[in-house]
Amino acid sequence: MKKQLFLFLAVLLTTVSSAQNLTLLGHITYNGTCAGAWHYVDSLNTEYAIVGVSDKISIVDLSNPAAPTEVYSVPALTGQNSLWRELKTYGKFAYAVSEGGGGVIVIDLSNLPGPITYTHWYGDGAIAGQLNSGHTIAADNGYIYIFGSNIGAGGCIIADLVDPSAPHFVGEYSDNYVHDAYVRNDTMWAGEIYAGQFSVIDVTNKANPQLITTVSTPGQFCHNVWLNDAGTYAFTTDEVNNAPVGSYNVSNIGNIQLEETYLTDSLPSEEVHNVRVLNDYIICPSYGSELTIVDGSRPDNLVEIARAPTSWNGSGSHLCWDASPYLPSGIIIATDIDGDFFVFQPDYQRASFLEGVVTDSITGNAINGATVEILTTPKTTTSNLSGIYKTGIAETGTYDVKYSKQGYVSKTITGVSLASGVVTNLNVELASFTVNGSVNIWGTATGIANAQVVAVNGAVSVNATTDANGNFTFSNVISGTYTVVASQWGYESQCITATFNGTPINMQLVEGYSDDFSTDNNWMVNSTCTTGAWVRGAPIGTLFGGVYANPNGDVTTDCTNKCFVTGNAGGTANTDDIDDGGTSLTSPIFDLTGYSTPNISYSRWYFISPTTPAASIDTFFVTLNNGITSVIVDMFTLSNTTNGAWVPMSINVASHITPTATMTLSVYASDKLLSGNIAEAGFDDFRVTNILSVAATTKAGTLQIFPNPFNNSFMMNLDAGLLTDASAVHITDVTGREIYSAALKSAENKITLPVAVSPGVYFVKATGTVSDIPASVIVKN
Hints:
Blueprint: E1 22-29, E2 34-41, E3 47-53, E4 56-61, E5 69-75, E6 85-90, E7 93-98, E8 104-108, E9 117-121, E10 136-140, E11 143-147, E12 156-160, E13 168-173, E14 180-184, E15 187-192, E16 197-202, E17 210-216, E18 222-227, E19 233-238, E20 245-249, E21 257-262, E22 276-278, E23 281-286, E24 290-295, E25 303-309, E26 320-324, E27 332-336, E28 340-346, E29 352-360, E30 371-374, E31 380-382, E32 388-393, E33 397-404, E34 411-418, E35 423-425, E36 428-430, E37 433-441, E38 452-457, E39 460-465, E40 471-477, E41 480-487, E42 491-492, E43 494-500, E44 505-511, E45 513-515, E46 524-527, E47 534-537, E48 543-544, E49 547-548, E50 563-566, E51 581-586, E52 598-608, H1 614-617, E53 620-625, E54 630-636, E55 647-652, E56 664-671, E57 679-690, E58 698-700, E59 703-706, E60 713-718, E61 728-733, E62 738-743, E63 748-752, E64 760-767, E65 776-780
Parallel strand pairs: 29-35, 29-36, 37-44
Antiparallel strand pairs: 1-28, 2-3, 3-4, 4-5, 6-7, 7-8, 8-9, 10-11, 11-12, 12-13, 14-15, 15-16, 16-17, 18-19, 19-20, 20-21, 22-23, 23-24, 24-25, 26-27, 27-28, 29-32, 30-31, 30-33, 33-34, 37-40, 38-39, 38-41, 41-43, 42-44, 45-57, 46-51, 47-50, 48-49, 50-57, 51-56, 52-55, 52-57, 53-54, 53-56, ...
């Protein structure tokens, strides 16, 4: 255990209650911290716990598990108190090490229940007098193995126990530091924490251990390793937050495979500290002061079956350090770093397993990443690349199971019976939505090829491109209400709201030009700046002095949430703003020869941090080019009071330049002052319209509108005899999107549009009248 205490998660546990399958029997609180715990049985079959406390080794009589009692102790030498004190037993002896010093403490337990004796072994032979400290220790088949010692790289010191009271040094493994290891017969499974791996080492020749292989662990900070009873699987821990237990198939040491991972159900961010295995149950003392038990009988489907807290003082802030399940009575002993020792009675029950495959109902293909939820429980998992999912719960019973994946219709299977030790197989097919549609020229059946179509529903966005006949398909979409935008340069984009339920979507585009950047219409970006080039996307706001530098949203009156901004990395205001140069955004070519009085509208954003003389050096301007000449039609200066805001603009083209068939518009922004100066720009909602030549009063049948053009308000009169209780006014823009509606209660009505409505052409229609009234065209200045 090397994790610093200030990293511990404070979890308040107000009571020490037992979870299902794990019952608290007894408890001791020490005046110090607790670390390692192991077990011993004397000649009278009395069970004991050997506990590593910060200032001693405690021998605890467990003959009455409800009242564990310390009967003997081995005090730490002066100045050798330590948070780390680990131990193991072999034969009638216990062997303990500590990072506080004292070498290996050899404790003779053969006289229990009578007094114990002990000595300190500091090494002999080639390491005589050199062994002072160790982090952990293992004992197997007549040898002890000391890990993380003060000798060499802190690998492994091996000593035989021919005389168990006096170990004898026989060899050393020194390839890497070993934090802890598990030894069975002639193979050592070493947790090489700083190398981020476990190593498999042949220790047949104790004087010359040989590395067989190394395997990286999920958290790349391997703390300990333990084998299952059959020796076919190894389980690992990593001492970092959010790192799972790894389950490795080690049947073929030449091809070890990670098959499953486990995070505790209640505290998944708190890693397991150690694993021990008994009868294919994995005992997991863990951070967050928690002891859990996992059914490991299916090592590719690890299911937690028991859990209990281990912080007697209620802090829950540290960790359950160690546990031993190996006493003949079946009780589990465990320690918590808070200074607590616990005795638990487990009720080992096999998990109720649920496994299967999730596939596409149409193609039969496996669905990767489908979510599988056992409802009314916290158990959730996902399917893998082969569509396979594996999960389970501790409790038997009947449950509803929900299967879901974006692009598919969710399915809930009711009344699924789950039983202890039984694998319930449930294969599920999910149905996906396919939505077909077309994009045609307005009023015709002629399809528009290569039109871009995007549909947005919250965080869900799908895209398509029309074929040569103007047809498109959205595959694997979920049902719901979407904003759908169709766009092709040379046409005005259309924005509609549609419900995706399998019904075809038909859209029609009017010849012209409009672009709110919901789709990519190939505007060209050129830049000399080091950061902050133009980019299309949903703007991520950045603040400078409490004011947005990069906008925190696009123009709200258009469709979707996309626009062009200069850099969009988020973070602080100077993270991705324009620096040390300029960036230009240029439209595709557009033809204005068919417009009598062409007008270009757009919204622009520019922010300059108020640093003198930024106003005279940093620049923002909009240029029109007719293929022959260029002219600046819009320029922003620091003195403009709309610094850091969306500003709608309307440009009468003919008043600036001769309209031609080869027009382009360019937006240029730069920051040439200092690298620390903040400059950001945005561009959105580009449109080309005709400024209509209309009289001050426009009459369409019995509907009168004046003035026209208007600013924000106009009067609308119609014959009183045409009004009904259902009469209403509807105003739409050139895309067909409704921007205003209201009931008509009188013959004369004042209509005030939202201030955010951009200049351009709009259509007014009265509905619910005695007879049809043609729509009127109005122009907003």
